[in-house]
Amino acid sequence: MPIRRYDNSAQVELNIKSHLEREFIDNGLYQNIASGQLRIGGQRSDVLTRITSTKYESFFNDWVLETDASGVTGFETVNVSGVTVDGVFQPRGSGTYLPEIDFNGGGVVFGVNIPETSTVEAVFSYKETHFDFPDTFLSPALFSEFKDNVVGTNVSVPSGFITQLPVVVIDLQNRTSSPHQLGGGTEIAQQVVFHVLANSRRQMNRIVDQLSTRSDRKVIQGVDFNKTPVLFTSNGDRASTYENFTNMQANNALKWEKLYIDSTRVVENNNVFYGFHRARVDWNLTFYLPSGG
Known about the structure:
Elements: H1 8-26, E1 30-33, E2 49-50, E3 55-57, E4 82-85, E5 88-91, E6 100-102, E7 107-109, E8 120-121, E9 124-127, E10 130-132, H2 139-143, E11 167-179, E12 186-198, H3 201-211, E13 219-223, H4 245-250, E14 255-273, E15 276-289
Parallel strand pairs: 10-11
Antiparallel strand pairs: 1-9, 2-3, 3-7, 4-5, 4-8, 6-7, 11-12, 12-15, 13-14, 14-15
């Protein structure tokens, strides 16, 4: 297993991202793709596009992989258990073609070559909102003719080719530290800036509400991502040692510091840039580091 050396800033970023992805799913910010479902232009959303003889992609990035968030009652998320090749279901990691699910890339990687004439189908859920960090390459979203893989075009655009919107960039900004108590470690006050880029005012408002009023005064039990088991395979599927965020939060051996969301503030809202809606939400966080942390 490779050595992991996440510093405190990376721990904060990873815990916020994991927390928000679960929260957004539980509050319905996802879409389900059913068998035979059509998208704009009459193309089937469940039929994957061939990239190579072993790699197929959907129109959507970020398939729901969380096992601790099932979504809205009556419209629960789909737990992807495999794909269908030419009408025959292939379970994850077995069957004739040994498929692995690339949850982040929105597709499947097969263990053997797939005939070029084959039809590959998948039933899945994908996250409406994509979280990333300041080094995200947003140019494909800003300057592509495709604003969104769902309604932007009738041309086939496999998920890995462009950045889907909406996107929330988690950006750690100002930080101050002070002694927590004599010999008792350090109290950290951290500003977190969320940059929101969306296709519509409705999308933007839902995200802003989730990041502001729905998040205010919450406490996130941190997970030490230096200690977690291997969560994903090299192809992006859940590893055999995968644990969901909720279970890791409850595991005393994996616990990190608690993140206290002291306040939230909408700094910018409904700023339109080249047809994109932009917003900014700030969090003021407090967490504590032990001596030598």
